[in-house]
Write a structure and sequence with these properties.
Elements (H helix, E strand, L loop, with lengths): L1 H23 L4 H21 L5 H21 L12 H5 L4 E5 L2 E5 L4 H18 L4 H11 L4 H25 L5 H22 L4 H25 L2
Amino acid sequence: YAIGASIVSVIATSSGSAAAYVKEGITNIRIGMFLEIATTIGAISGAVVAVYLNANYIAIIFGCILIFSAIMTLKKKIDHTTLDKTDKWAKFFKLNSSYPDKGVDHPYAVKNVPAGFAMMLFAGTLSGLLGIGSGALKVIAMDNIMRLPFKVSTTTSNFMMGVTAAASAIVYLHRGQIDPGIAMPVCIGVLTGASIGSKVLLRTKTDKLKIVFAVVVTFLALQMIYKGISGL
């Protein structure tokens, strides 16, 4: 029941904070819905095949990927707000946008759309396999591959996580692997944390957010690697 409760908590986390980000105009809804095509397909596929694969090996690999990605995130010192050399698919789907920061709108161009779509398919698959939101991987894909500003990446990822988790939850619910008695108290806790976090993010500088993000991702990665190794 642990994976089922985790999936439900991801939905609660997304619901608790996504509304604030959308209201502020930071979340890029067009990108979120476009990439959800990939993550939803991946999430359903991952949940279906989860019973046939050893999740411990997947957890170890995923943990290593997260550590590498956290290092790459810290190396990026500026946000990607230039409008030059935009992706042709970004133009076609009208994904380029702007986000407000301290009362000023900052335009940005989306790049490497096909590669970002492929990474989202992978992120969705991991979400279904491991019962996680894979939000960190989505942030990394949008920040490092699609070159979105970091705040846009984090808020759009949060918006997407709930949809991805809901797709996986259908499969786990059908199997009877979601216990309301476990999921309910977990949801109450994460909803409270998500509401607080959404208010903090809007007032925090990007550089500080990246440091916090890297530290949290590294901790989660080490925890995932440890659990994967101990479960072998």
